[in-house]
Design brief:
Keywords: Hydrolase, Manganese, Metal-binding, Purine metabolism, Signal. Helices cover 42% and strands 16% of the residues. The chain is α+β, with helices and mostly antiparallel strands and 554 residues long. Strands 1, 2, 3, 4, 5, 6, 14, 15 and 16 form a 9-stranded mixed β-sheet that branches. Strand 1 and strand 2 form a beta hairpin. Helix 2 packs across helix 13 and helix 8 runs antiparallel to helix 10. The protein binds allantoate ion.
Amino acid sequence: TASSALLSDDGLKNDLFPEILRDEAVARLYELGKVSDADGYLERTFLSPASIRAGNLIRTWMEDAGLTTWMDGLGNVHGRIQPPNASNKALLLGSHLDTVVDAGMFDGALGVISAISALKVLNVTGRSRHLKHPVEVIAFCDEEGVRFQSTFLGSAAIAGVLPVSTLQVSDKSGLTVQNVLKENLIDTTEENLSQLKYEADSVLGYVEVHIEQGPVLEAVGLPLAVVKGIAGQTRIKLTVRGSQGHAGTVPMSMRQDPMVAAAELIVSLESLCKRPQDYISSNGPDGQCNAFSIKSIAGSLVCTVGEISTWPSASNVIPGQASTQIPLVSFTIDIRTIDDIGREAIIYELSNQMDTICDRRSVSCIMERKHDANAVSCDAGLNSQLKSAAYAAIKRMTGEDIGDVPVLMSGAGHDAMAMSHLTKIGMLFVRCRGGISHSPEEHVLEDDVWAAGLAIHAFLDTNLLYSIRDGLQGVSKLLSTLTNSIILILVLSSLVEIRLRLCRVFSSDSEELLEDDSLNFSDFSSVFHGDSVQYLTGFGDQCRDWFNVQDLIR
Ligand SMILES: NC(=O)NC(NC(N)=O)C(=O)[O-]
């Protein structure tokens, strides 16, 4: 087996563990990539039958890596290693097991599998016994937000920022989150949802590996990068209602056509997001927009209309009659930028444009904000450890000194955003072919899967294991405690001796007794008890204080 091959290797310390970190990890990615609710393409949304199957598969791989596993009250799959003598603060590693529709097989899955593989290496080499902290891998149930337009359901629950009202949000078929949990025999209610939250003082940090989903790493020819921060995002649903009619009979000048209103809104959104500086130089909400935010918006703003639906959706009908509750023309808007104030300014401007366009076209428009997440920064300390780990992994694999590991911003959202409400976060990006993601064309080289696993292994090995240095530090701490205690005893006994002698000099009535060299503390206390205390002069009060100290020592 891979494990016995590893253990029989001569240079175990220098081994790159390709059997586990590359071959097995890649095989598992392909196996998981086939677990789908759809025939012919990959689709695995929150708590769908395929996502339950995927969760069970992940549990078997976690158990194979020596982790204790469970599924929580929202469908997140956990695997934990709790070494003896470890402190109670756990390092959390993870990513998500859900996918978009017609997805690639690496988005989310790579982060879960590379974490499991790295822990498997620690397990088979016996080094997991030396972990200073528990390590937990979490495969989050919902990051893409496809089914409920919610995003981060699992990680937000663990971070304690999931509103209880989310349990009543419905999917397209009318099932609520709570219904779907019940269908899967998970009894999560508004009362017990908060029990999923982890306490901040039980967590050391959260680290996530994810494919870059952009083209930079491929362009610079490197497999790994560290993530500096993640852009904030807002998801909006915009509904346009007009007047339904016959395509052949209603004159163009008499139409209230929601479809063309939607088209104009979409085109104006494109202009706004391509050149935000032309629109929001001075009219941000409450004048918040300053020159800096306009510059950062212009550099990072992206807006997308990804989903559109119409009713009744027929070629010879102008959509628009409110005869049913189904929205007539509705579409989604996804807005992202690293500048949170700038994002608000864009939404404000969009809303003004919507009012103008919809008034002019005599249709009614409603904008609903479905999801907001502010931009987050990754922790500088974790990032520097991840950077060293990525550097070491690439150096060991290629023998090359790559110089600095790149540092990138993430335009894609990640569970780390929700986890940042609980603990410090760090992320590693892995190169993907052409930067393509959310597509079956998504691809990661086998060696890059290996580099990711090796980097996480190096990160754990360097930062989470007891080292010889820790051992030596422990011994030296023990020695210094012992030495300090001995010094304290010596100092105390010399103080006793000095005070005895001083009291001997300054006390009159007790002089004879004090001159007796064989005097011990109890003799001394009997002398100064009661009336004899009043005969002390000069140092008498201090002798009395000292006397009390002796009582305490006894
Ligand atoms: N890594 C992702 O693809 N995340 C996606 N999902 C969320 N929630 O952001 C996205 O749209 O960027």
